Amino acid sequence: MNDQESQAWLGLTAMFSLLPSALDRQLQRDSGLTHFEFVVLSTLQLSPEPTLRMTAIAQATDATLPRLSHVCGRLEKRGLVVRSPCAEDRRATNVGLTSDGRRELIRAVPGHIATARRLVIDALTPDQLDALTEITGAIIARLADEPGNPPQAYRAEGSLTQP
């Protein structure tokens, strides 16, 4: 790599290390959720269906089934999700968001958005935000073409708004 490429790459990897930890700390402190638990609850909330198969959630979140099963077990013990056998395929498990889970997610969203705004959005000018959107879109498109990556994981579309 040349100096420009090296600086860009090192900056990106440093951000990858620091940002997830900061998001986890805020969510743990404010709502007792990990960032991944928040993503799972959000995936269920945004689904047009009342339940999703574990495999669909795993694909949407780029998680392994064992990791997702462990996390859903914790969320179920807290009453935030409910797991049930899939009627169409008895080998599969469906997961649904409970009303408590929906309420917990709604309570967690404002703090999460405030943290994203404070750490990322407010640090950038409007032109930099446009550039970031273009940059992340290009990288996500490249990653979507990588063998083994689920095609719909981490789509950078839609809107994140406070409830």
From TrEMBL:
GO biological process: one example: response to stress
Domain HTH marR-type: from-to ranges: 1-141
InterPro entries referenced in this protein's UniProt entry, alphabetically: HTH_MarR-typ, MarR/SlyA-like, WH-like_DNA-bd_sf, WH_DNA-bd_sf
MF term (GO), any: DNA-binding transcription factor activity
Superkingdom assignment: Bacteria
PANTHER family for the chain: MARR FAMILY REGULATORY PROTEIN (PTHR33164:SF99), TRANSCRIPTIONAL REGULATOR, MARR FAMILY (PTHR33164)
Protein name (Swiss-Prot/TrEMBL): MarR family transcriptional regulator
Species name: Promicromonospora soli
